[in-house]
Amino acid sequence: MEASEVWSIGSIDPMVEELNPARSAQSRWLQACFYIAGFATLLGWQIILSFTHSFDCTLFRGKRFAGAGWAFWCSMGYSLTVNITQLVLTSRTVVSRIPFALRWNVAAVCSALSLIGLLLCHLYTTPDNLEMGFALAVACVSLTGAASGIWQACAFGLAGCLAPSYAQAVMFGQGLSGVFSSIVGASFSSSRLGLIFSFTFAAVFELLGIPVLYAMTRNPIVQEAGALKPATVENQVTPSSSPVLTRARSSREILVQNAWPQAVTVAAVFGVSFTVFPGVTSRLSPGSRVPLLISLFQIMDFLGRFAPKCSVLRIDEGSVVSALAALRIFFVPLFIAMQCQSEQTWAHNGVLQVLVMVAFAFSNGYVSTLSMMLGPAQRGVSADEREPVGTMMSLSLVFGIWLGSLLGIVTQVGMQEVNTC
């Protein structure tokens, strides 16, 4: 095998862009690639999220399975497999054994296949095989989660090697996928043809991640920085010779000693969010407003991710970002109260629901993006440790999603057995 056929992430110093037109063009092109990569890594989940109401009410008729409805098990299956894959990818040995390009491309293909599988479940599940269709649909969502976990770890790891602006580009791209999916969901959520188009388009787009990686590996900024160093087969036979293993501290040591503040922060942001979204949100009254609230979340989350681009909204002090994340805990009892007291006038007031969702979603995107940008640059993290810290931040993010999904199921204890839809 030729040396150029095997790739792995190396440990590098962040590049300082030279102020010349050629360098600026290279940087913009690389940033565009990270936008597309971020869009693709979360597109599958965003499309699934946009059609949550369709699956819950149209396909599964609002039924609860083992104590919870589709939205809860959907987010649980997704977040669990995301956590497993990203936890595995924090291992230096595993990362050194599996070429970077292989991880990236397998994630793209599996993401596309999972969306096609989920579409087939929606088309061919009938009242006679509802339980089987539900199980297969959750399995497909779990595959989406596994693929997304691998892909996000690759994207944030590579971005962590280069500069915070590239991590922000990934987050921005993920938010943009939410805006796109919200438009699709609002337009086609009740249309069978729209469902087929949306899932098919998303599956095809996921495969575009493969040529995007090719473009990134050819970018001079990446090549000169050594962020994707070609490794010979001989070099990979001995784990200690891998560039990934040249750092002095293990991932656990880096996390415990320096990286934990923002890792905990981003986990808290998504832990709060997924405790009540999409599960509790999908059970608010009236059911006809749920697709609008989900679309609103996706749009405002995107705007929140974009906000740090404005210098006046950028926060560089980690403790302030952590405090903002802690304040979001008050959204949990508020959403639960709106579900429990759905018969009360205030609970199903449209203006209140919209205002709460705007604040909830914007803060999710805003605080999480600030935390992801600060993560690899925390005090005490050396240049060759930024890539694993980027991966750890991604792992913390999805751990928060899993924890929130688990807590979301607990919130449904004692609730009605069937969604009002």
Automatic annotation (TrEMBL):
Membrane topology of this protein: Multi-pass membrane protein
UniProt cross-references to InterPro entries, sorted A to Z: Eqnu_transpt (IPR002259)
GO cellular component labels: plasma membrane
Gene Ontology terms, MF aspect: nucleoside transmembrane transporter activity
Compartmental location: Membrane
Keyword tags: Membrane, Transmembrane, Transmembrane helix, Transport
Assigned protein family: Belongs to the SLC29A/ENT transporter (TC 2.A.57) family.
Protein name, entry field: Equilibrative nucleoside transporter 1
Organism name: Symbiodinium microadriaticum (Dinoflagellate)
